[in-house]
Design brief:
Bound molecules: zinc ion
Mean pLDDT: 91
Oligomer: single chain
CATH topology: Metallo-beta-lactamase, Chain A
Helix content: 25-40%
Strand order of the largest sheet: 1-17-16-15-2-3-4-5-6-7
Shape: globular
Distance between the termini: 6 Å
Largest sheet: 10 strands, mixed
Number of helices: 9
Structural class: alpha/beta
Low-confidence stretches: 4-24
CATH class: Alpha Beta
């Protein structure tokens, strides 16, 4: 949805501060882009429970478990693994062993690498419901709706190009997360969903800011207010790439990066989106 104005230190923010703690605000959704180095890990917190999207690298696993403990995550209603590359499921074993998890979504059932085999073993060992999902899957958790936009086929092989693409919706708030999907998939998304459904307030930048993602056409379809890049400081891939940063800047999005900003937290009540001391009115 489009923003019409920026309001700094709104009444909502003041009320939130007075209430001494996010749990007491009227937030319907808190989004934590956790700093897991060169990987992805996003925690969605709702009054009805928590959802994890990806689990970073094996190297960041211990830090991730500590972060989830610090945040008081006691159960996961759902863990979504966008694809089975190590930088997205490396910490899954530790998380799923530590935190009771009701359900796991993957983008295909193939255990095509060591990390994936470990993930599937952990899921089985902990008796977690496992589902290979595809476009059309919808999960409502209170006022938050998760819609799977991609892949179109649940038999898809797990890889960047078949990353689960999610749309997270909460009243007037929308966020698009594309895992490591590339520009070819972005074009398919544009053709399938159009600007009306891709329009969003936050875009989790595809593939850590690689030049293979975040095409100008895709950014123009989404018109995000914020673009969040999850990547490691000084990573060997050169993420985020200069061309992508230029395209994001051109799109008008405010760019946030876990390598520079650390953990990035947003909060919304469905009509305003708050990041630090800035609140946007959503429409
Ligand atoms: Zn990745």
């Amino acid at each position: 949805m489009k923003r019409i104005r920026v309001v700094v230190l709104t009444v909502w923010l003041c009320l939130a501060l007075v209430s001494c703690g996010s749990a007491e605000t009227d937030a319907l959704l808190k989004i934590h882009f956790l700093d897991v180095g060169q990987g992805d890990c996003i925690l969605l917190r709702t009054p009805d429970g928590d959802i994890l999207i990806d689990a970073g690298t094996e190297e960041s696993q211990e830090m991730l478990c500590l972060s989830l403990d610090r945040l008081g995550v006691e159960e996961l209603l759902l863990a979504v693994f966008t694809h089975t590359d190590e930088d997205h499921i490396g910490g899954a074993d530790g998380v799923l062993s530590m935190i009771p998890t009701r359900e796991v979504w993957v983008n295909g059932s193939a255990s095509d690498n060591e990390s994936a085999q470990m993930l599937f073993r952990t899921v089985e060992k902990n008796d977690i419901e496992l589902r290979a999902v595809c476009a059309g899957e919808i999960r409502r958790i209170g006022d938050v709706v998760l819609s799977v936009f991609f892949p179109f086929d649940s038999d898809a092989a797990s890889g960047n190009e078949n990353s689960i693409v999610l749309k997270v919706h909460c009243k007037n708030f929308d966020m698009v997360l594309t895992g490591d999907a590339g520009s070819e998939q972005e074009q398919m998304l544009i053709e399938q969903y159009g600007t009306a459904q891709l329009d969003c307030d936050i875009y989790k930048v595809g593939h850590h800011g690689s030049n293979t993602s975040s095409s100008a056409a895709f950014l123009s379809a989404m018109t995000p207010q914020y673009a969040v890049i999850s990547c490691g400081a000084g990573n060997s891939y050169g993420h985020p790439m200069g061309e992508v940063l230029a395209r994001l800047e051109e799109s008008g999005a405010v760019v946030l990066r876990t390598d520079l900003d650390g953990e990035i937290v947003f909060e919304t009540n469905g009509s305003e989106l708050r990041y630090r001391d800035v609140s946007l009115v959503l429409q």
